[in-house]
Structure to design on (358 residues):
């Protein structure tokens, strides 16, 4: 899959020929995934490093990044900055890292202490945002001896769980509005109305990656692992019996228009595989992850005559609110465009393959 990406897009900056180049969370994640193959061939790491170098200036600023937007999506690419800084020791990367840390120091929060998803989405916590921020902050805390961020990370993970949890199913709603003012928000709970597969995928990947850096002695570590275990079990209960994968709207597979979605399924495969290997989950989840990966190959992946790989049925993007207004309904989630080889599916596919040694 990584070879297919590089063959079709010699520069990751131009992946899928975007109308506007951005310091983009999902393309950066694809770079991170491909970089993990660097031990096989340095060309994979160079691919990611070239992407970073397109954005980072000699003075340590980052093109197309405005911290004052307070957009939590812009934090995820900074994980690659840490990787390149550790390899090169160049001061410009450290300065760029600190720009992102300064954003998070100033980033607006809910009254309950959770990061707003974006300045333009006030009082809202989205599961997506837990992945965008917490693995970077946990790694920064470990690499740069800033342990205060571990408490922030633990609070974010556990708060997001508390406010989005549906106690009946164990599943997590996509987002929560503390103000309960959004049209999509339940007037009593503040939660959005549906369980979106990729939202839960982001959350599961966030936890399993955060734990790479989290101190064994941290008082919230066991609570985070317990949440991970409970959520994994809840996901198994809504897995499609026929394909072994997950629907776009997790618990409504019986409704017309719902479809088996690639990114969420790949994210769960990655989280289950890594979680089992690290001992956070029962070892049976490793077999589940392998079966899910096989099912992705059988149901969602094709290979053309030139050997180029395409992953199908990946939701291009889903959000809440904004203009035009996204109401979080079932009809909304199934209406968003599906994009072949969207990086939000390709990246976790590669990560799962690496974890499973496939």
């Amino acid at each position: 899959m990584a070879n297919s990406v590089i063959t079709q897009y010699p520069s990751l900056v131009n992946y899928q020929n975007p109308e506007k180049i951005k310091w983009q969370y999902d393309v950066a994640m694809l770079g991170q995934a491909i970089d993990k193959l660097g031990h096989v061939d340095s060309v994979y790491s160079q691919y990611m490093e070239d992407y970073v170098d397109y954005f980072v200036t000699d003075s340590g600023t980052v093109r197309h990044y405005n911290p004052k937007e307070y957009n939590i999506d812009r934090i995820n690419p900074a994980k690659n900055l840490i990787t390149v800084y550790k390899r090169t020791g160049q001061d410009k990367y450290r300065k760029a890292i600190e720009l992102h840390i300064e954003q998070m120091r100033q980033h607006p929060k809910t009254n309950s202490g959770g990061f707003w998803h974006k300045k333009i989405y006030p009082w809202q916590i989205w599961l997506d945002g837990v992945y965008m921020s917490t693995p970077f902050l946990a790694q920064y805390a470990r690499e740069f001896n800033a342990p205060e961020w571990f408490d922030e990370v633990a609070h974010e993970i556990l708060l997001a769980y508390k406010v989005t949890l549906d106690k009946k199913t164990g599943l997590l709603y996509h987002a929560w509005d503390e103000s309960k003012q959004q049209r999509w928000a339940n007037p009593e709970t503040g939660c959005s109305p549906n369980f979106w597969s990729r939202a839960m995928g982001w959350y599961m990947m966030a936890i399993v990656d955060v734990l790479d850096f989290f101190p064994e002695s941290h008082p919230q570590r066991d609570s985070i692992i317990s949440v991970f275990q409970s959520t994994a079990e809840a996901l198994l209960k809504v897995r499609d019996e026929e394909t072994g994968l997950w629907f776009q709207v997790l618990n409504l597979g019986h409704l017309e228009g719902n479809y088996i979605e690639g990114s969420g399924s790949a994210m769960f495969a990655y989280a289950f595989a890594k979680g089992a290997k690290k001992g956070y989950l029962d070892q049976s989840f490793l077999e589940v992850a392998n079966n899910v990966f096989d099912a992705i190959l059988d149901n969602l992946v094709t290979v053309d005559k030139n050997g180029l790989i395409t992953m199908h049925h990946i939701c291009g993007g889903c959000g809440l609110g904004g203009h035009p207004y996204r109401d979080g309904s079932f009809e909304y989630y199934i209406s968003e465009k599906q994009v072949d080889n969207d990086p939000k599916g390709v990246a976790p596919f590669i990560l799962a393959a690496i974890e499973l040694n496939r």
Summary: DSSP finds 13 helices and four strands in the chain. The domain at 109-357 is CATH 1.50.10.10 (Glycosyltransferase).
